[in-house]
Each structure stands twice: as C-alpha cells, then as structure tokens.
Amino acid sequence: MTLPDVDDLHDAALAARLGHLIDHKTKPLGALGRLEALALRLGLVLGSERPRLHAPQLVVFAADHGIAVRGVSAYPSDVTWQMVRNFLAGGAAVSVLARQHGIGLTVVDCGVRHEFESAPGLVRHKIAPGTRDCSIGPAMSAAQCARALRAGIGAARALPGNALLLGEMGIGNTSAAALLLARLGGIDVGEVCGAGTGLDAAGIARKTAVLREALAANAGAAAPLDALAALGGFEIAAMAGAVLQAASERRVIVVDGFIAGSAVLVASRLAPHVLQRCVFAHRSGERGHARLLAALGAEPLLDLGLRLGEGSGAALAWPLLESACRILGEMASFESAGVSGRG
Description:
Layout: H1 12-23, H2 34-46, E1 57-63, H3 78-89, H4 93-101, E2 104-111, E3 122-124, H5 142-157, E4 163-169, H6 173-185, H7 201-217, H8 224-231, H9 234-248, E5 252-255, H10 258-270, E6 278-280, H11 289-296, H12 312-330, H13 334-337
C-alpha cells in the first residue's frame, strides 16, 4: 500500500531564529529548561516563530487481542468494550482530562469484540472482532494490517486542528507493544514484558513465556509491516497510520505511553522523519517503556509513574505545549521590555 510521505523538517535558518528568540527572552540563558527545547520543537514542526496550537484532537484507538485468551492480562477482554462505552459517556480519566483542557476526543473502533450503537465521538473502522492469537501464528493478515493502517490515515485526515494526541484501549495490548519492541528493537522480550493491567510476578512470568511463543511462531516477521501484522493489534496499526498521516500534514504528535510509543516505533521505521513531529508526553511505569523511549531517542516531558494508557499522559502534558507556545509568542525580550541583558 502507498503510505503518506513524511518530509525532513530540517530548517537551519528557522532553528537559528527560534534559538535567538528563546535566548533573548527576559531570563537567564536556559533558565526555562526543557520548556525551551519544547518551544523550539513546536516552532519547527509548525514552521513558525510564533507557533499556535488549535483544535487539538485526542484519538483513542480501540481493539481486542486474540492473545488475551492466554491470560496475559489481569482483566478480561470484555473490559475493552466496557471502557469504550465509558469513554463515550465521559467517565474515563482521559475523558475528564480532555474536557478539562478543551481537547476534542474521538474513539475509533478498529476491532473491538462488540457492536456499538452510534454515538457522538465514535468512529467505526472495525477490521474484525479482535486479532487472532499471535502465540500460534500471525495476529492479522497483510490485508487486514493494510486496512487498519488506512483506517488510521482516514481518521487523522478527517479531524481538524494541528495537534494529534494518541490514545488507545485494548486488553492485551501491552503484550503486542512488548512483542513489537522486542522484534524491531532487537531486545529480549523478558526485558520489556511488564505488569500491564496489574499482573503479579507469577503472572508476568507466564506472560513472558507466552510472548516467547509468539516470537517463535512468527520468527520470519522482521520487516516493520510484517512485524506489525504478525505481532501487533488493529489499534496499534491504526495508530501507526494516523501518525504517518499527521506527520505528513505537519501536525504536532503527542505520544502517550508504551502502546502509543510502539505505534510510533513502527511508523518511524517506515518514515524516520516522523520523530521530528513527536512530543513524548511521559515515561510510564510499564517496564518496557524506558527501553522503548531509548530506542526512539526520546526524552519525555513527565515522569509520574502512570500506566493507564487511554491517552491520559498525553492530555496531562498538553498544558506544557500550550505554555511553550505562549513563551515564544508573548514573553518579552530584553530589548522590548527595557531590561538590561547579559554583559
């Protein structure tokens, strides 16, 4: 399939102008710490010395996973569709945070094992009622993977605004994320398999054994799209498509936690310049997330011990992006404020 083109954003002249603006605000050099680097990144992504964020969209991609039948989660698969209803009713953590910060919230059903009635904020792109059990063979066919990618591309294209915040829901999806990181990152799966929804030590050991079976059953799936089809989930594939589309449109992409990061990992292996558009919201409490961030060369904004998913970390980090833009656009320079600069 044809994927969106993602160009190199490198612009030395704009970077120099942004750096000059930041350094000549009424503050000591570097005094705003990593907010300054964030302001620089936002200016480069949006191509402006006065970047403005408008109509931010948080999209929760939802799907079920066949591997959940192997007991890799502390919760049953029915929680996926029940939480989708909770999102739509406005009762989930991400619903509250999106409402607080004025972020649009959309839920995309990519493959939930349930049929939903039409509801505001729900978009249907169901590929199938969950993937197959990847511990015995590929989670999805190449055609299904392509459909999921196209679903994400279409979902992103249909939304307004210049910022996409990534969220997800799917019992079993920390397993899929760990498998993708292990395969694409060349890391032993035992080093990145974590508690997910709350497994104890024995549960993590069982989960790790199942994931080793999945890697063995799909030993030949090494290329990014092959690995995605064999080991991923419909929601992860759709997220990867949305990332590619948003990046091609020069939107800011706010990456939540481990599962969203695995989608970005796949997308970045297909189009490396995707990472220029990404802001990584937080480092989660999920075991593999630090290794994933390292593989992506990413430094997250927050470290709050979160492991909820849903896009909750992305929503929590959102005010920092707004602040970075305001610093660039509204903070006075030494010259304009009549303040003596450095000697």
